[in-house]
Amino acid sequence: MSDVVLEARHVSKYYKLGTETIKAVDNVSLKLRRGDFVFIVGPSGSGKTTLLDMFGALSHPSKGEIIIHGKKLKEFNDFQLSMFRRKHIGFIFQTFNLIPTLNALENVLVPLVPQGYSKEDVKRARDLLVEVGLSHRIMNRPNQLSGGERQRVALARAFINQPKIILADEPTGNLDSKKGWEIFQYLRKLNKEKGVTFLIVTHDIEYIKKGDTVYKMKDGKLSRKSTLT
Fold this sequence. Notes:
By secondary structure, the chain is an alpha/beta fold.
């Protein structure tokens, strides 16, 4: 059985701006294997977030195909795609995307709402919040949490479905350096202990360690894979 969990084959994303065609992502191919911890770096506007959205089935490529766990995403209808995404992919957003009227526990459970959740799911959500250091904030709403605490809620939410792939878009973009290091320590722990595959878009190259796999993106193109030494 292949250990490839995500594969992009000649993926492109085009937008029309008047008579001009903008190539946000231009002919990108990539393979991620189980347990990979991969970074994509590059300037703003280079196509990093657009690429991540396509990998997460939040948008469709204009050309090419994306395969996750051996399944071609283009063969799914919208409902099937939504269910597949919910089961297999976790997201960590820079802006947290928490619902302000819900407390931390309820926010973690949001991905489970469409199909309903059990007492066991609620227990797992509580356990995740404890694991990320928020045992004292479980009933707090987002406006009662610091930026670092809100990001930890977002982390717990990303893992509620126990996905094997996590896509993170600037996960430390709104955090100070100390909080950023704490977040990355947690991500690396999950990567090492549970074999979760991470693809992380970031400007913060300080969190990249020797031996990490790094891709560079510019003008929609992904450079040849390199390893920091």
